[in-house]
Amino acid sequence: MANTVGIIGLGYVGLPLAVAFAQAGCDVVAVDVDARKTEAIAAGDSYIEDVSSELLREVSSRIHASTRYARLAKAEAVLVCVPTPLTPNREPDLGPLLDSVRALAEVLQTDQLVVLESTTYPGTTRGRVAPLLEESGLAAGRDFNLAFSPERVDPGRTDFTLRSTPKVVGGLTQACLERAASVYELVCDHVVRVSSPEAAELTKLLENIFRSVNIALVNELAMLTDRMGIDIWEVVDAAATKPYGFMRFEPGPGMGGHCLPVDPFYLSWRAREFDMATEFIELAGKVNQQMPYHCVTKVQRALNAAGLSVKGARVGVVGVSYKPGVGDVRESPALKIISLLSEMGAEVSYHDPHVPALSEPALSCESLEQLTRGSDLVLIVTAHPNVDHDLIAKRARLVVDLRGVTRSSGVADVVRL
């Protein structure tokens, strides 16, 4: 058992891990370069929906938050959970990851275990992380253990938790694998061992590419059925009655969050180093990136049908986070939609119970009543479970529903994706 576990990166992945290990009886050294996060943790104030402040305070005596990597020297295992975003050119940006690994190398100790959880392309753990850690003078697989275990966090989800979701682990050596597995068994009921870090790295990419491709498929069909005058929601409902050979995916305004819009590009970029173009994966990315434009066209057509122009129209957006039940706006298609509508001259406002304010563009959340009453058109982008969408459909002057959540409202003239 690891008595002390270090966590680098205290976001949607790192903070729940820190709490889980603290609940398991471990002391946790929680490190982040953002002092606001470490100060919030020290005060027992959670900034993550999946971790309540009450829960954080229950284990606060075991979590020691700091911006100093030196504190990690006493940890038996260190889990790296920093962001791995894309550059503006849609290429992997390993800057935050490599910076954290370099800082860790300066305090790395013999017999420590280091596990990378940040999503990345196959070969990162062995080819990029190990050499940087070995600048400490210690050899990976001999003097310290190294493994990769992809995070499988789905913010806002309650049916599958960190403990109940199987944990995939791949080690640099067999000893590295077993050491990492023994640590995760403290907080996960089922650990899935794979043969290498590369297999574990690709496992995470496959999971998200599978979703990306299938979402792109149904989104492309939504654009086609729009032209054909067929209700895509009726088609999806009917297809989903087949008890085998079909998995339900629903159309929407695009993909958001820290994984789905990013991860496929990690693999397509890596594939080019092997002289292969992953055309299927890249096409799915293009389709999903096109969806906000299609949705704005739907808004434009709906306004035109009502005798209104986009320029000067008051458009109220309901839901700006990237998925229901959370306040995360990273890569949210709502932001692109708002930007496009604003560029066309619309006056855009929004309501989202999980997002009190937006920085870009600078907007503050309005009450649902105010938004519905003051808008020429209400656009449902993200369907939060605690929002009465049927009431919106009945009271708003004009509604464009990108999530199909008003189908039971009985309102006939709602425009749907």
Structure in words:
This protein is α/β, with parallel strands linked by helices and 417 residues long. It has two domains: 4-195, Rossmann fold (3-Layer(aba) Sandwich), CATH 3.40.50.720; 230-416, NAD(P)-binding Rossmann-like Domain (Rossmann fold). The chain contains 13 helices and 15 strands. Helix 7 packs across helix 9 (263-272), helix 7 runs parallel beside helix 10 and helix 10 (279-305) packs across helix 11. The radius of gyration is 23 Å and the shape is globular. The termini are far apart. The mean pLDDT is 94.
Keywords for this structure?
single chain; 417 residues; alpha/beta; Rossmann fold; 2 domains; 8-stranded mixed beta sheet; 13 helices; globular
Question: What's the short version?
Answer:
The chain is built from 13 helices and 15 strands. With 417 residues, it is an alpha/beta fold.
pLDDT under 50 segments (min length 5)?
none
- Average pLDDT score: 94
Question: What's the number of structural domains?
Answer: 2
Number of strands: 15
- Helix count equals 13
- How would you spell out the order of helices and strands? EHEHHEEHEHEEHEHHHHEHEEEHEHEE
Rg is 23 Å
Class derived from helix and strand content: alpha/beta
In CATH terms, the superfamily of the largest domain is NAD(P)-binding Rossmann-like Domain
What proportion of the residues is helical, as a percent range?
A: 25-40%
CATH architecture grouping of the largest domain:
3-Layer(aba) Sandwich
Reported for the largest beta sheet, the result is: 8 strands, mixed
What coarse outline follows from CA principal-axis ratios?
Answer: globular
Q: Give the strand content.
A: 5-15%
Across the major sheet, the strand order is 3-2-1-4-5-6-7-8
- Indicate the CATH topology of the largest domain: Rossmann fold
